[in-house]
Amino acid sequence: MRHVPQGHDCGIDIYCETTYDGKPFLHIWCQVKVSGKFNSDAESNSVSIDREKLEYWRSLPVPVVVVLVPDKRGERPPLFVCAPQIVMRQGPTLKSTHKIDDASQMKKFLADDLPYETFLWELFHGKVSPIKEPRPSYTRRIPPGVAHEFENNLRLSLLHTLWRLGEDILYQSFGVKTLQPKTNDEASQKEAIKTAKPYIQALEAIVQGINIGNYENFVTIGILAELEGDFDKAKAFYEMALSSIDGDVNLPRLLPDDWQAIRDMISDHLQRVNHKKGEYLAL
């Protein structure tokens, strides 16, 4: 446990590292709030948090909890723990989810509840992973009934993963700008297409299912279609990519040095696939 010194306030008061059998296990960061308004006898307490600070806590790489402490000088009051990621649709009011009265309850919180809070934290950040265990376990626990609460975050992470993975697999065998094979090994080229295809098909299904997407997704779907010889489909997705870029008024500001080059590359893809389509029709 490390106290954050005064003068360096980033909304975190304590950095904690839990251990199991003397070995590091999980991390947790704490914001401590002491008030005479908190009721020691209640099962839970709540506190209003500034929206900007709440979003800041949510952006941090490890779970952040807000610890509410009733102001009982000279006593040892219970601790009320709030988890910011639980607040999804409500206003910026945190209600405690855990009451800790003594050392045994603190031990239980760190051993049993913190792994679950870490699971939720990772869901909020777009990652589905089993409950972390202090030692290797044959079973891997992924609790049901909660992932849907983080659907938007998980879907965005999934889009990024499918796009990056599918495209990188293809680019191991084909040139980024021209899609020309990097070697004469046709077997490896076919294997790259076969391996990337399920990821890009899943990407396409999600993009079409939610009727949104950005130019990277459209380009990747178009590339697979072009490599498979479906030039009409490739043309349609390259055109969607160009439309996405032209419709994004923020892109020149966000990518001032790159956006025109990106647009030119997509235009080259479109020109190339139109040429291939013309050659195919001429046969």
Give a short summary of the structure.
This protein is α+β, with helices and mostly antiparallel strands and 283 residues long.
Enter the CATH topology name of the largest domain.
Serine Threonine Protein Phosphatase 5, Tetratricopeptide repeat
Class based on secondary structure composition and strand pairing: alpha+beta
* CATH architectural group of the largest domain: Alpha Horseshoe
Number of domains: 2
Based on CA atoms alone, the radius of gyration comes out at 26 Å
List the strand order in the largest sheet: 1-2-3-5-6-8
Q: What's the number of helices?
A: 8
Our estimate of the beta-strand percent is 5-15%
**Percent helix among the residues?**
40-55%
Low-confidence stretches: none
How would a crystallographer describe the biggest sheet?
6 strands, mixed
Principal-axes geometry comes out as elongated
String of helices and strands: EEEEHEEEEHHHHHHH
CATH class of the largest domain: Mainly Alpha
How far the N terminus sits from the C terminus, by CA atoms, comes to 73 Å
Name the average pLDDT: 88
Find the count of extended strands (DSSP E, 2+ residues).
8
